[in-house]
Amino acid sequence: MTAEIVAKLLGEMEEYYSHFDHFPLYLLGWTLNGERVQPEQKHELAQRAFDQFTAGHLSKVVWVPWPLVLEKARPLEPGTPLDFDLDPEGSGEVLLQVLVPA
After folding, report:
1. What are residue 64's phi and psi, to 5 degrees?
2. CA distances (Å), 73 to each of 46, 64, 95, in order?
3. How confident is the model over 63-102, as pLDDT tens digits?
């Protein structure tokens, strides 16, 4: 079941990235919300999909303001944990982690 979920996440990433040339990491969490996984498993599954995707794509993660304005991207500081979820109750002034070509 875990491999199937990771494969689904990878498929979502590939499709979105091929169309938009970026991928907001929170979409992994949102995709997992529709799966039967424990909340504590979400980060692990998202991380596995992220690792597999980035192994095959020269890319980097940047901070981007919401709504997404890629021209305002700024580097992710080394050691910053990846955030695969988005708080829908959060303020409208948030920075999102987005995967972009390196």
Report:
1. -135, 135
2. 22, 5, 9
3. 999 889 999 999 999 999 999 998 766 666 789 999 999 9
